[in-house]
Amino acid sequence: MRPPLPRWQHYLLLLTGWLALLLAVLGILLPGLPSTPFILLAASCFVRASPRWHAWLLAHRWFGPPLRDWETHHSLPRKIKYSAWGLMLVSAGISLWLLQGREWLQGILLVGMATGAWVISRIPDRD
Fold first, then answer.
1. Is the separation of the CB atoms in 72 and 85 below 8 Å?
2. For residue 32, what pLDDT is reported?
3. Cβ neighbours for 72, distance < 8 A, ≥ 6 positions apart
């Protein structure tokens, strides 16, 4: 069993977990913002700060399945990786077209998409 966290670390992890979960919800609604990495971040914060919130996240209707899959395999199915890259590419194309004339926003978008694609490529895959 781990020693208890100092109070400030406990609250910092809870705050970070809830902010990550909020970003995950936004990622479901907004194209180009991934949700899965934020769900994983929230879970890693909750597992240290609050086993109760971690259990809630595992049992959640939307967040639970990808989290349980990750905790079981520590990898992504190849089909999911290809889908993520494809959706990011389509989303980037549409967003770049909508942001014509705003080069700085297009640049930010491209950096974000490239970062997301790189992160996905670093995750081990399985068949």
1. no
2. 65
3. none
Tens digits of per-residue pLDDT, 50-69?
Answer: 989 999 999 999 889 888 98
Predicted pLDDT at 52: 93
Token digits of residue 54: 């971690």
The answer to whether residue 1 scores a pLDDT higher than 70 is no
Instruction: At 116, list the tokens.
Output: 């997301």
Give the pLDDT of residue 31: 67
Q: Left (φ > 0), alpha (ψ -120 to 50) or beta: where does 5 sit?
A: beta
- Tokens 């990808």 map to which residue? 66
The amino acid occupying position 125 is D
Structure tokens at 85: 């890259």
Q: Please state whether beta strands 125-126 and 76-77 pair in parallel, antiparallel, or not at all (unpaired).
A: parallel
Name residue 94's amino acid: I
Q: Tell me the residue length of the chain.
A: 127
pLDDT in tens, 81-110: 888 888 888 888 998 999 999 999 999 988
Closest residue by Cα to residue 87 from 20, 19, 36: 36
If DSSP codes are grouped into helix, strand and coil, which group holds residue 102? coil
